[in-house]
Specification:
Blueprint (H helix, E strand, L loop, with lengths): L7 H10 L4 H15 L6 E4 L3 H13 L11 E5 L26 H8 L3 E6 L33 H8 L5 E5 L6 H7 L2 E4 L20 E5 L2 H11 L29 E5 L9 H16 L3 E5 L7 H16 L17 H12 L2 H14 L4 H22 L5 E5 L15 H5 L6 H6 L3 E9 L2 E8 L5 H14 L9
Parallel strand pairs: 2-3, 2-4, 7-8, 7-9
Antiparallel strand pairs: 1-3, 4-6, 5-6, 5-10, 9-11, 10-11
Helix pairs in contact: 2-3, 7-15, 9-11, 9-12
């Protein structure tokens, strides 16, 4: 059976009806990975226990036990979330040989929901990048065109879902790292509100920006996965107590009466005009569905990228200070402690990681902290206030996810500024701590385009409502790579 286009919902129905066993489903995906992933490199590792986990679910189902919403569903895990017994490296040489000694909270919750953890997906080195080219394990290719990048840093997870290696995967989003690769690979990517999903057990990049979320074929599948992983976690001090949890069955496919904002600052120069045309056609489709479209302004959006690339490297330089090769991971000895640090970190970190560590250390240093980091925090507050004002008049905001479709592998690799511009429409959601989702909305030159939907904090329901309505009226999400 061809499982490549199965959604999580469809797979769950087949398992529940007895049409297919979890073992057979998992074996089908493992076979696809074995046969096809060499040309895509979506996975760093494949779990040796995946079939055992699937058989255990089948046994429980045969006994009539109550099972979770993901029972028997194979899920890919981005290589920066700890899984007990797995080598988890954040695709970085500095963590080579690092074995997880406990599960991240999201992993425990996936297991409680019955998911089968099928393997670790490729990503940019320490989650720093927008193309999955900086990985210590080598780049991931876009399933739509293997000469193109899949986006990043969750490019392995996005490519795995797009290629039909898994029906769903987890990614992490610090400045667009779920939404941007989802857009470039033609699938759905959700960055939940900061605090909705626990970060405990996530190898941190920038702690005030990081958020874990699902990558799936459909909006409905995204809601199913979010329901499984969301909720308060006492192990994460930034975790929020939710008054309303995600209930997939309550998603309405109707935007009648909703007001959707179009930020004029997001449709200026720098965007491929063909991407603009595709996105505006998607906006018109939602207008035909009954939504009111209103132009809005986010006046500080032009400063978002500069603000992000001060705050993120600063937090990253602090977080990565713990990686010294003495307790775990890569180690390169020296004649003294200072030389050991220098050699281990110099050899263990890639070029992009070292660039951001230096940027972050500079902006946090004496004499520059006030001029750069403190000022960036103030601008971040202004950006959040822009969204707060906008959401007084609109229910959700629509924009492109990426200014272009996927580019050639190597095209921007040595041009960091060009690479950073790939995040220009996504970083604001992380700075403002609001939820964002990318849904496929068309093609340019045979490559997918993503529509980004943003909503007020903890209003993922509006994202699902708009996204599900769009997918109910279009078929872009049903198209797959040949």
């Amino acid at each position: 059976m061809d499982v490549s286009t199965l959604t999580i919902k469809e797979a769950g129905e087949k398992l529940a009806s007895g049409e297919m066993t979890a073992e057979a489903l998992t074996q089908n995906y493992l076979d696809r990975i074995s046969e096809q992933d060499e040309s895509i490199h979506a996975f760093i590792s494949v779990s040796e226990s995946a079939l055992d986990e699937a058989r255990a679910i089948d046994a429980r189902r045969a006994l009539g036990e109550s099972l979770g919403p993901l029972a028997g569903i194979p899920i890919g895990i981005k290589d920066n979330m700890l899984v007990q017994g797995w080598e988890v490296t954040s695709a970085a040489q500095i963590l080579e040989g690092h074995i997880g000694i406990y599960n991240a909270t999201v992993i425990d919750r996936l297991k409680q929901a019955g998911a089968v953890l099928i393997g670790g997906t490729n990503m940019d080195d320490a989650a720093m990048g927008s193309s999955t080219e900086t990985s210590h394990h080598g780049p991931t290719m876009n399933p739509w065109d293997k000469t193109k990048v899949p986006g990043g840093s969750s490019g392995g997870s996005a490519a795995a879902v797009a290629a039909g290696f898994v029906p769903g995967a987890l990614g992490s989003d610090t400045g667009g790292s779920i939404r941007q690769p989802a857009a470039l690979c033609g699938i759905v990517g959700l960055k939940p509100t900061y605090g909705r999903v626990s970060r405990y057990g996530l190898i941190a990049l920038a702690s005030s920006l990081d958020q874990i979320g699902p990558i799936t074929h459909t909006v409905e599948d995204s809601a199913i996965m979010l329901q499984a992983i969301e909720g308060y976690d006492p192990k994460d001090s930034t975790s929020a107590t939710l008054t309303n949890t995600t209930v997939p069955s309550l998603i309405e496919k109707d935007v009648t009466g909703m007001t959707l904002g179009i930020p004029k600052e997001y449709f200026g120069s720098g965007m491929d005009p063909r991407v603009r045309d595709v996105v505006m056609e998607a906006v018109q489709e939602l207008e035909r569905a009954g939504a009111k479209i209103k132009e809005i302004s986010l006046p500080h959006a032009e400063y978002a990228l500069a603000t992000y690339y001060i705050i993120q490297p600063a937090e990253a330089s602090s977080n990565l200070g713990r990686l010294d090769g003495l307790r775990y991971g890569y180690h390169s000895g020296g004649e003294n402690l200072q030389e050991t640090y220098e050699r281990t970190r110099g050899e263990g970190f890639g070029t992009e990681v070292k660039r951001r560590i230096m940027l972050g250390s500079y902006t946090l240093s004496a004499g520059y902290y006030d001029a750069y980091y403190r000022k960036a925090l103030k601008v971040r507050t202004l950006i959040k206030q822009d969204f707060d004002e906008a959401f007084k008049d609109v229910d959700a905001i629509l924009s492109p996810t990426s200014p272009t479709v996927a580019w050639n592998i190597g095209e921007k690799f040595n041009d960091p500024l060009a690479m950073y511009l790939a995040d220009i429409y996504t970083v604001t959601a992380n700075l403002a701590t609001i939820p964002g989702m990318s849904v496929p909305c068309g093609f340019v030159d045979g490559l997918p385009v993503g529509l980004q939907i943003l909503a007020k904090p903890f209003d993922e329901y509006s994202l699902f409502k708009v996204g599900a309505t769009f997918q109910d009226r279009t078929a872009w999400h049903t198209q797959t790579p040949t």
